[in-house]
Write a structure and sequence with these properties.
heterodimer; A: 308 residues; mainly alpha; two-stranded antiparallel ribbon; two-stranded antiparallel sheet; B: 311 residues
């Protein structure tokens, strides 16, 4: 393949990663924005989403489509419920103190990860995609006789990957609409701006916190369900996803949803391109250092406008 | 003051005496616990006394381990020189990290240190040609000799670990009783007020981090030299979480806490790994339980209930 088709392939793979990252990082960003705590266990909720998707698809018969749709509905509900329960039993009791929350969610990370290892085992297991047609992509060649369209070997994507991109975009749009135009979104934004004042106006802040924590985890679980037909479900898959979503949320500015989405596209695309053309380990080293430096020299992120 | 000195010197003496009475398995375990407790002591200087919650101390531990290990692998410098180089590596890395990361505070500081540490762990994998990546490498027994004594021998290893532990332990006791130690506590409790009193808090925090990184590197180098192996898993996130866990369990901001925490956790994991492979579950449950019920740890509870003057 030439450089052009190669690049296009890299961009397509990058777009899938960007879509999943945007969804997952939105959850992290929502939790940080409203509750001002960093949820280190977020990656494990993503992993749980994938594992629950496998379990649901395994239990529900009737073809891959039925199992997948069931997983798409059930996994976020189950994971979100678990997260809300964890919020009420643990985080509420330590008063959402930022540092203690980090320590507690590190503990939660290991509990979830190790329980999954005990219950689900160390194997990686696939889930069949509901549909998976191969779509060959055309490329325009400028030959001697003018431009001509041809289909280079290897330049293709699947309908499922395109569906992941579309689904993630639709879900993110839905979150925006809910946040900006619904009663629930209004309550969340009020809690974010001033939780004491919100309490004074009769908003049940503790229930809002539990709900936000649950919704955040549910979004991670959705990302996990969407990715599992492409990548298999494995009990250690949360670690790298967590690091990437941290990177995205920091670059985008902690708590800014728009920034998060822009950063997800940026990171996903560049990860796709860099890992096609360069060594993936080197790419990760550079990306990690770059992010650390962004945080050092521009603590509010690239898009955040939060005062310090 | 005298009582506390008696307690700490007493612990050192008891550990020395244990060398002659312990059965072989426990003997090896305590040598390991003492080496790792040095790491916890180093972490405690940054976290317990100065309030710098770092999630990236594994990079200092690994800097010591690889600084010593690589030197011994590619040169014939000898164990003492390797240990010195390891300390320099840890202190240097801590200095660079601190100059950048200490511009941030709180949650950002944790994430920046986590990222730096991750970059170090990835760098170890990237230079697999020298470090052998995930697999790690064995530090040859011939190079692990100090003045004719073979560190691989159980007795020598125990005493070397004891010497390293005692040095770090008494050093931290000395440090926290000096004026600098008191100022570090002041920074932990209220940084703006410490600055108002005229202390250059940035430099003091940097100093604390460099000392902490150097002590952690000493532990890493010791672990590599005593047990003869260096591997990338020691640079992973898990090894940044461990000292946090040990210090929280034992009691952050106490001199004896890191040792107690390391000892308890080591045996907890040792016992539970006989029952299940998922031994990190214990670590997770312990972290949640500690934040919920005993944020002060063992020695912290002791200080609160029985002995207010415990350093």
């Amino acid at each position: 393949m030439d450089f052009g088709p190669h690049l296009m392939l890299a961009l397509l793979e990058g777009a899938v990663l960007a879509a999943v990252l945007a969804l997952m990082a939105s959850g992290l960003s929502l939790v940080f924005g409203v509750m001002r705590v960093v949820n280190v266990a977020h990656g494990e909720f993503y992993m749980l989403g994938a594992v629950v998707a496998w379990a649901v698809a395994d239990l529900v018969g009737g073809g891959p489509a039925v199992g997948f749709i069931a997983a798409l509905i059930l996994a976020p509900l189950i994971v979100g419920g678990l997260a809300a329960a964890a919020d009420m039993t643990i985080l509420k009791r330590i008063d959402y103190d930022p540092e203690r929350t980090i320590v507690a969610t590190i503990g939660l990370l290991y509990v979830i990860q190790q329980l999954t290892l005990m219950g689900y085992g160390p194997e990686a297991r696939p889930v069949a995609p509901p549909f998976n047609t191969r779509i060959a992509l055309p490329w325009i060649e400028w030959g001697a006789g003018g431009p001509s369209v041809y289909f280079p070997w290897g330049l293709s994507t699947t309908s499922y990957k395109l569906f992941v991109i579309g689904a993630a975009a639709a879900l993110i749009l839905a979150i925006r609409l809910v946040l900006l135009h619904s009663k629930a979104g209004l309550v969340m934004r009020a809690t974010q701006l001033d939780s004491e004042m919100a309490t004074a106006f009769g908003i049940p802040v503790e229930r809002v916190y539990a709900a936000v924590f649950g919704v955040g985890a549910g979004l991670a679980a959705l990302a996990g369900v969407l990715i599992v037909p492409i990548q298999q479900a494995h009990y250690l898959m949360g670690g790298e996803a967590l690091l990437l979503s941290f990177i995205v949320v920091i670059i985008g500015g902690l708590g800014s949803l728009t920034g998060t989405i822009v950063a997800a596209v940026l990171i996903g695309m560049s990860d796709g391109i860099i890992s096609v053309f360069f060594s993936p380990t080197l790419a990760k080293i550079l990306a990690t250092l770059l992010v650390a430096l962004v945080l050092v020299f521009r603590p509010q992120g690239l898009f955040g406008a939060r005062e310090r | 003051m005298r009582a506390s000195l008696a307690l700490h010197l007493g612990l050192v003496a008891v550990l020395f005496a244990l060398n002659f009475v312990l059965p072989a398995y426990a003997h090896g375990n305590i040598a390991r616990v003492m080496t790792l407790a040095v790491y916890a002591i180093g972490y405690n200087i940054a976290f317990g006394y100065t309030g710098l919650l770092s999630l990236g101390h594994a990079m200092f531990f690994a800097a010591g381990m690889y600084g010593a290990g690589l030197l011994l692998r590619f040169t014939d410098a000898g164990a003492v020189a390797a240990f010195g180089v390891a300390l320099a590596c840890g202190a240097g890395l801590a200095l660079v990290t601190g100059l950048l990361a200490l511009r941030t505070a709180g949650v950002s500081f944790m994430i920046v240190t986590l990222m730096f540490s991750q970059a170090c762990a990835l760098a170890i994998l990237y230079f697999a040609e020298y470090t052998r990546g995930d697999e790690g490498f064995v530090i040859a027994a011939a190079s692990r000799v100090v003045a004719g004594h073979d560190l691989g021998d159980a007795q020598v290893r125990y005493l070397a670990a004891w010497a390293l532990f005692s040095a770090a332990f008494l050093f931290s006791l000395w440090l926290v009783n000096r004026p600098m130690g008191k100022v570090l506590v002041a920074i932990r409790e209220n940084e703006p007020r410490a600055r108002l009193l005229g202390y250059d808090t940035f430099r003091l925090k940097l100093g604390a981090l460099v000392i902490s990184g150097m002590v952690s590197a000493a532990s890493g180098a010791g672990y590599g030299l005593f047990f003869g192996y260096a591997g990338a898993s020691f640079a992973g996130v898990q090894y940044s979480i461990f000292p946090l866990l040990w210090v929280l369990l034992g009691g952050a901001g106490t001199v004896i806490g890191p040792f107690l925490g390391t000892l308890f956790m080591f045996y907890l994991i040792d016992l539970s790994s006989g029952i299940t492979d998922a031994y990190m579950l214990i670590a997770g449950v312990a972290l949640i339980g500690l934040t919920l019920f005993a944020p002060q740890g063992i020695a912290g509870e002791l200080r609160r209930r029985a002995w207010r003057g415990l350093p």
